[in-house]
Amino acid sequence: MTKPLEDKTAVITGANQGLGLEIARKYLEAGASVSICARDAERLAQAKRYLQGFAGSRQEIVSVAADISRNDDSMAVVEKTNSTFGRIDILVNNAGVYGPKGTVEEVGWEDWARAMEINLYGSVLMCRAVLPHMKRQRKGKIVQLSGGGATKPLPRLSAYAVSKAAVVRFAETLAEEVKEYNIDVNAIAPGALNTRMLKEVLDAGPGNVGQAFYDQAVKQAQSGGTSLEKGADLAVFLGSSLSDGITGKLISAVWDPWASLVEHKEDLRKTDIYTLRRILPDDRGKNWGSE
Hints:
Blueprint: E1 9-13, H1 18-29, E2 33-38, H2 41-52, E3 61-65, H3 71-85, E4 90-93, H4 109-137, E5 140-145, H5 158-177, E6 183-189, H6 196-204, H7 206-209, H8 211-223, H9 228-239, E7 250-252, H10 265-270
Parallel strand pairs: 1-2, 1-4, 2-3, 4-5, 5-6, 6-7
Helix pairs in contact: 1-9, 3-4, 4-5
């Protein structure tokens, strides 16, 4: 049987561990060749060796040590991928950090700004680098990793929350810019994952992240959290032709019926379902401004 990503090529950022590594594994199993990148060269090399076990005879794995928040590095990743495979079909912008933990006036400004550079600027730079190739092909898929920080306040994690909300609005905006080129752009909320980022919260303690968020993290650690597989499976779906025409959406790997969205493409195209929008009084049964 044909695999959903057969003969496709994908760039996956932050793919040396956690969700990024799981997405790379799932992409290989789905038939794609992958280009993985991350800042930690040693861990990236380990990830490549691990992934080799999932690659078929016609698949290839490229790894590039890079800081995608820097323009030269993001360009180098894309150029290496294109020179190796001759095309780029999918970009998965997974690289991200929590950033500083504490109230906005107490945390270090450099740390706050650095989180924005990695989470937001890195996504934008990778898109800027890859879009000329996708536009020439008149086809492409861009998958942005967002999360709970995009849809609700996260006190004491303001850099993370702000950057992830910005990532979603960037995806919505970019989707409109590139629609005529048959490039779909979507964001994923992967759920509460037990990765290094959870450990950061636990290590920071309730004094830095707040008691409620810390207690939530403890419960998540004890329960095992959301499986990495859920977010990775959604990333495969959004990278495949099954999702053609679904664009400009924030989709939850846990709560949304994404596997059946192919049946609702026309409704999705016409509505603001799965998008970030301002809630009006009428939406909550209030008539504060209604005539």
